[in-house]
Amino acid sequence: DTTAHEAVFDAAVAADERIEPRDWMPDAYRATLVRQIAQHAHSEIIGMQPEANWITRAPSLRRKAILMAKVQDEAGHGLYLYSAAETLGTGRDELLDKLHSGRQKYSSIFNYPTLTWADVGAIGWLVDGAAITNQVPLCRCSYGPYARAMVRICKEESFHQRQGYELLLALSRGTEAQHAMAQDAVDRWWWPSLMMFGPPDAESAHSAQSMAWKIKRHSNDELRQRFVDICVPQAASLGLTLPDPDLRWNEERGHHDFGAIDWTEFQEVLRGNGPCNDQRIGQRRRAHEEGAWVREAAASYAAKHGKATA
Ligand code: ACO
């Protein structure tokens, strides 16, 4: 019965054990995991678009090879995550359908344009840096398949973050125009990167429950603060500034204070009114339609192969 099941589940969570696909779990726990994992998976595959924009224009063969590898990694991350969601009984078709019809979200950050080559560096340094800060604690998430997927994803994200940092460093130390391009990219990506961590704790609908279930290990504001503290010295080593006049070390708190985030902009992006929302979702739908023949051929092959070996 449910009460006995619930007691076993609660004890496992309390003991920091992993919940596995065949274990009993509350319906709301399952639903919240599907929501978060789906949103995460969608972010990985939509996140391929802004950077893919620069593959044909990468300034050297070396940079192009690195960027292609990185964009392919994002596709792989999407696959691990859709597979993790499948272990909860939700198929990839259903999740993609919800993405395409706007019933599930993807990260706000991917609705901003990549205007210059330096944006590839700023995405690696800031966006992937924010993603790692958020995702390292998810390696200890109470749901086993999600936690395990995160281990490999974080290793790859850490390579992505370093390539972005190295790219920006090269530009920052380059000509005056290259330095200015790097600074402009950081100026545009800084605030949207802080928004990636989600709404402030007081307005975060799911945080309290997700933390009680040990899906989330830290609150949105805690992780945002951690990220700011990591970035400040890195910006200094890059020879770049962060576009926040209120950013300063607070000795008493042992953290950096930072300026107010424009939450209206965040809400607008979530509502579909960011600079690239229509373009991103339009491109995703098109890619899905154009790939229909591959899915059909694979299904047909599997059916024939299944019969032949039966
Ligand atoms: N972009 C889009 N939607 C967001 C964002 C964001 N940056 N932050 C929060 N939201 C949404 C939430 O999904 C939720 O909407 P919903 O109820 O329709 O699902 C709503 O805003 C309220 O937010 P919270 O209650 O704080 O939601 P939650 O507890 O899920 O926390 C967070 C949000 C921190 C993003 C969490 O879901 C998470 O850690 N997800 C996994 C990481 C991830 O998705 N990363 C993707 C970007 S990184 C990358 O792919 C490179």
TrEMBL record:
Top-level taxon of the source organism: Bacteria
InterPro entries per UniProt: Aromatic_CoA_ox/epox, Ferritin-like, Ferritin-like_SF, PaaA, PaaA_PaaC
Matches recorded under SUPFAM superfamilies: Ferritin-like
Protein name, UniProt field: 1,2-phenylacetyl-CoA epoxidase subunit PaaA
Gene responsible for this protein: paaA
